[in-house]
TrEMBL record:
Alphabetically ordered keywords of this record: Chromosome, Meiosis, Nucleus
GO BP terms, alphabetized: meiotic cell cycle
Organism field: Caenorhabditis auriculariae
Organism ancestry: Eukaryota, Metazoa, Ecdysozoa, Nematoda, Chromadorea
Disordered, as annotated region: 294-383
Basic residues: bias regions: 362-373
Pfam families, alphabetized: HORMA
GO annotation, cellular component aspect: chromosome; nucleus
Protein name, as recorded: HORMA domain-containing protein
UniProt biased composition (Polar residues): 340-354
Superkingdom of source: Eukaryota
Amino acid sequence: MPPAVSQVSHSQDSIQNISRRISNGDAVHDTKWTQTFPASVGDEVNSHRFIVRAVFLAFSSILRYRKILPEDCFRTNYITESVKVKSLDYKNGLGGRVAAKIRGASEAIKAGYLDEFSLVIYLDEENDDDAAEVFTWKMFYDDGIPYAELSSGNVGGTSLQRLASLKFEGSQKVCHQFVLMIRSIVLMCAKILKPLPEKAMASFRIKYRDHTPGDYKADGFLDHPTYFNVPEGIQSATVGNLRPGFHGSILTCCSLFMEDGFAAESQLKKAIDSYAETNGFGVNDTSYQSFTATNEISGMDTPPLIEKPRTAEEDEPMETESMGSHPSKRSKKSSEPPAKTQQPKRATRARTQTAKIEKKAKISPKKNQRHYGRVSSVQVASP
């Protein structure tokens, strides 16, 4: 477990480390990379620019490989000379509207207010708080604002504590981390997770940091008193992590369509370590790391009984350049009436992340009430 260090001391240490690297000409010398990201991500401005663009590309890949949006919502982008990805296309009507929502979350990162940004997939429109699958981007900031979690003395070590223990080690390493994260997203979405049911719906959710002003609202998001609920025994796994100069992030996935979290992380580690070694990334420096803590969602529990996912064609093998195959369109619903089947029991809710709804008279003016934001549906991209 990383030591419970104070936010200020960690920030000062990072600034000294960053200053040394900038003075030594720290930069990525890949022309495709520099068309999308800053060559150096050590200073605060470029660290932010990198993170918001990484968020955009990561969630574009998730939306595509989980087949939440149609293929025409995406366009091709290169992130290095040999690696290309599909990102949301601003020129496409639906793609552009969804991209605007991610941009709203990015502005919250720039303001230092975003704690978590999540893509929540649910199966019942009437119960959209009951998540069947969630991809969560957890943020860490070297901004001097204390995190209570970093001094909690938790024995298991939370994901934030583990992320805070990492240090910026150069822009080239960050480049490698992001390439590996994209590889992990493709593997997780196309190979490890079972296909989503036809009726699956999705929305973006934001959890704000504790110091966020009560009247702050990310562009395109509506305030909401709750975040989301996950059922007992849901499986979870770390997808990847990034550590530019002044920020840190972890991308995790919890899903009813993941058979075993430990097996998923083992499969990711084997694939990513092999890819890193083959491409000369240096396995010791950029190898896959798990941030799943024992006190958070367990990857070892048995998932509850769930609806059988829809049948889908096998995805083609992933290619180094294309980062994966083009996903096929979802099959149309059969015109024949469905056979009667016994409905599975609803899983017991064990982890409910909610904001307390208190009367104004009881809220201390010195402490902001934690609040959340959401977009009602990614498919229609409207609040």
